[in-house]
Amino acid sequence: MSGIEESLDQLGRDWDIDPVLRGFMLGRVTDVSDRQVRVGRVVFHIPYLRGHDRHVLWGCRWPDCDNCCKKQGRLPLTSSDMITIGSGLKYKSRSEFLRSEALVATHAEPGPGSGSVVMTTVNLKRMEGETEADDGTRVPCRFLGSDGACTLHPGRPGVCYMYPFSAWIESEGGMARVHASYQFDGCCPGFYLDRGTDPMRDVLAEYSGIIHGYVMEAERTAREGLSSVSIA
Ligand code: SF4
Ligand code: SF4
Description:
Layout (H helix, E strand, L loop, with lengths): L2 H10 L6 H7 L6 E8 L2 E8 L4 E5 L8 H4 L8 H10 L5 H8 E9 L5 E9 L33 H5 L2 E8 L2 E8 L8 E4 L6 H23 L4 E4 L1
Parallel strand pairs: 2-7
Antiparallel strand pairs: 1-2, 2-3, 3-8, 4-5, 5-9, 6-7
The chain binds iron/sulfur cluster (2 copies).
One iron/sulfur cluster binds next to loops.
């Protein structure tokens, strides 16, 4: 059984997961096209299930859900996260904060063709005593309060604001354009199906700013030498 299938089975104990949506997330619905919706400075890629005449939409279920914080896999920090979180935790300097609360980890993700994208990032430790060997394993985040709220909020890592989106930059007429799509890891019950994309209009407007801001911060972090990406 795949990791996503296992996660969906666990999710299904607490939430009703549409069987069509579940099949799609497991790669069993293949009649899918990519609907591109441009909102502000971001192009969103929304899957359209042609055979079912439905789009895959999303809205966060918090405070009824805090699953992404209970199953946190990795918290890469931007340089501004390091300043915000470090000062929120009362560290006097960034280096002191990084020594105590963060670690450097390298991981690979599928890349173009048969290659992979190798990323090295400074990550906020999600649990006491975390080491690089724990990177990518899903654990309850130590900053999750008993009320289901993040104790770092509003200064939580930018990557937490992004979830469940992932983003990248493409060149458009010589200009950099930010694109975003969903991550389907089986942990989020916020996905649903609808004929159109209108029900998600407000969410897309809100996330357009969040995603664009995060991508710019991530770029700045790389320019400052605090993260790196290479194709292997
Ligand atoms: S798992 Fe999804 S629905 Fe739940 S809090 Fe996170 S983003 Fe919201
Ligand atoms: S830092 Fe906060 S928002 Fe991010 S995973 Fe931890 S508890 Fe959740």
